[in-house]
Amino acid sequence: MDMKQQLSSAKDICLTVDLWSSRDIRSFMGIIGYFVVKFTLHSVMLVFHRFHGSHTAKKIYN
């Protein structure tokens, strides 16, 4: 089942956002969605990309 099919079967979804830096000072941002279907917890990676600049609220929002 692909991600769109999984998400369409979910009634609600919880999102988590995480930012971190690697040892060589490259920053990344990930957004993961969590949802329950038929009493089973599922998770999908929605976004994962390089994050440039300071980890300020304005930059994260944009």
UniProtKB/TrEMBL annotation:
UniProt KW keywords: Membrane, Transmembrane, Transmembrane helix
Domain of life: Eukaryota
Transmembrane segments: 28-48
Keyword Membrane: yes
Protein name listed in UniProt: Uncharacterized protein
Gene source species: Paralvinella palmiformis
Upper classification of the organism: Eukaryota, Metazoa, Spiralia, Lophotrochozoa, Annelida
